[in-house]
Amino acid sequence: MKRPGPTHVEPPETDDELEVRPPKSKAAGLSSVRSSFAHMHRQGHSVPSAVRILAKMNQTDGFDCPGCAWPDPDDRAALTEFCENGAKAAAWETTRRRLDWRFFQRYSIDELAQKSDYWLGQQGRFTEPLMLRPGSRFYEPISYDEAFKRIAAELVSLDSPNEAIFYTSGRTSNEAAFLYQLFVRAYGTNNLPDCSNMCHESSGVGLGQTVGIGKGSVTLDDIHQADTIIVMGQNPGTNHPRMLTALQKAKSNGAKVIAVNPLPEAGLMGFVNPKSPAQVLSGGTPIADLFLQVQINGDVALLKALMCLMLEEESRAPGSVLDEDFIGLHTEGFAALREHLAAQDVDALIDSAGVSRAEVEEALHIILRSRKTIVCWAMGLTQHKNGVGNVREIVNFLLMRGSIGIPGAGTCPVRGHSNVQGDRTMGIHDRPKKAFLDRIQEVFGFDPPRQHGFNTVEAIQAMLEGKAKLFFAMGGNFLQASPDTPRTAQALQKCEMLVHVSTKLNRGHLLHNKWSIILPCLARSEVDTQAYGEQFVTVENSMGVVHTSQGHLKPAHEGLYSEPALIAWLAERVLGPETPVSWCWLIENYDRIRDLIAETIPHFERFNERVREPGGFHLYNGARQREFNTHNGKAQFTLNPAPDLSLPGGAFRMMTMRTHDQYNTTVYGNDDRYRGIKGGRRIVFMNEEDLLEAGIAPGSKVDLTNDFGGKERVAARFTVVPYPIPRGCVGTYFPEANVLVPLEKFAEGSFTPASKDVVVRVARSD
Ligand SMILES: Nc1nc2c(c(=O)[nH]1)N[C@H]1C(S)=C(S)[C@@H](COP(=O)(O)OP(=O)(O)OC[C@H]3O[C@@H](n4cnc5c(=O)[nH]c(N)nc54)[C@H](O)[C@@H]3O)O[C@H]1N2
Ligand SMILES: Nc1nc2c(c(=O)[nH]1)N[C@H]1C(S)=C(S)[C@@H](COP(=O)(O)OP(=O)(O)OC[C@H]3O[C@@H](n4cnc5c(=O)[nH]c(N)nc54)[C@H](O)[C@@H]3O)O[C@H]1N2
Ligand SMILES: [Mo]
User: Is the CB of 93 under 6 A from ligand 1?
Assistant: First the structure.
């Protein structure tokens, strides 16, 4: 038999029709409305059908947007509580196109691998389970029963439950997540890596260590009431567009916004609320009062410089800067931080941050206006080797002025996936706390595994070493979301079995060693009918509000099952119908799952009752009330050295980021509108002076290389785009540049891959 060639794990080139325009300085406006409807139209929806779908999004009786985790305001806009990118997510999910076995008779996995990610995602919704047999290059249909039988047989035959890995992507509902972790732990492992490992894990770890809870402390009302909001390492115009409405409201209440970013992202600079005719006519409002264009990873240096200047100001006017009462009563470690700051060279810090002294002083002036300060952040801070340190330094900065646990002040890690925070609350965690496992034992009567499981990085390493043999994914696209793409592909292809619970085709489905199985499922926007009638699920947003999500649309296919139902079936096959719970009985009515959640997880008492209140309920958050759940009940000041940002001669520091036209690995289109890039994704943004110095012409093709750990990584034929990015820094798109992100370079303490700090060399392609 002819041996199959290697599967193409990298998206093919797509920059034949590249158009480059100057970047925009404002986000949204009418073009965002046009784009929303254009995307719905592309998926087969007429305007009335699009309006019907979008009108249900983020309403109290509707479905939660499957995009980001930004919270819903109390005064929701009837019918229009969505953004352009939420509309794209809805369009992608509710497409009228369907994908069945006939498609897979036409295309082998090798042919599919030649297609772009955009093309794969456009082929429609899965309608039936599919299986790839050993040696075959074509998926074929199988029954659910057969699929579960095979997966169960494989799970039962492993030498140890720790040879199986159960991944979760953060869109999974609370109900599905709770059942999933229960099944996985009853099966016998904590191997529950999730997308959070690659995302806000650094926030969870850094906040947990310092303020005793791995979640942000603020509510949406706090944002509206704040005097100063610092937005660091985040591109809200693209990734959390509804946040701009909240920032605008805060500004109209008198807040000042400071943006800290290597790029002048459109949404940080200005916003035209498309729902406000007055704004559309007047051209909108500015967002950032001050833009600090740091170099990549210059944030610790910036925060430290600010804190040094705060201390200088305090010695000039004692009592004017520090909140001595708060520090004395609620914190530990300030003396050591003060000593550490006294030993810093402020000019060197400012230099390392990449900004001017005048700008830092202007920031200080804004910050010292009030104590109601919020810091918002996302991937620009967490995806660094010092990602945990970045978060802890933000906490230091806030604690000094007592800017936590009072209205209008606190920490705001802005979460990505719509239920990534809820999944963690439900126990999707490779390192569960002892108290959580003890509770599982009390409620369900079995002894859950106590040994830590694999996070994402460890899971890839374990598969490469042959220590893990079955990979099961509850959603997501592990292949392309993970670092070092060829090695992740190699790792997955060493497994005996790959199982993907998915709604749509992605590159991860094209990997194959022995058995690959795709289990299609219902999407969030669709009606989920069980024995007791239509069910809703629940989610937790970025600010700890738990609320319902109810699908209204007819399912993409009558044979589709919900994620909770798929888990229950599998669990029944593997563990037996009543072990440790009556799986199928639970599925009849999701209230039964929620009753178990209420019994197991703190602060979910009377869950079924409280979640039915319109808008849901806020989970208890100690930091919000200055109850710090640390070893001594005090918030901790910490010492976090500023990273050494020197680069080897001729090298650059690369960040990987999202375009305006994608959802993580899902490509909606090729229009990164705000940055002025259309028609291509294999792009590298570079500073004009750097280009001159290197003798590289704009528009030319370059190869990017990285050799971390002695391994040569190449991303070939990227097109150079001159861009207002600091010198020494370059930017590329995720996931095209993931081939360059080293698996072994991750945040200390959280294992979050350092995908915003990849040292690369740039050379003209031959
Ligand atoms: N439409 C849409 N919405 C999304 C997503 C999506 O793909 N599409 N993804 C969702 C998910 S899972 C997540 S986690 C979030 C991600 O939301 P973001 O974190 O906004 O996403 P990124 O594109 O990674 O952007 C990172 C930003 O950080 C900046 N940056 C990079 N390095 C540094 C640094 O060292 N310091 C500072 N200060 N800034 C830096 C970049 O210039 C960029 O503006 O969005 C969520 N929402
Ligand atoms: N270089 C680099 N790498 C990164 C990042 C970066 O900034 N730079 N960001 C990281 C971050 S923040 C994250 S969160 C991860 C994302 O990692 P993942 O969450 O694994 O990736 P997604 O692209 O969000 O997953 C998309 C897939 O989910 C499936 N899906 C969509 N809807 C549903 C549904 O309703 N049910 C089910 N079962 N499946 C569904 C579809 O098959 C789709 O192809 O990537 C990380 N990787
Ligand atoms: Mo994320």
Answer: no
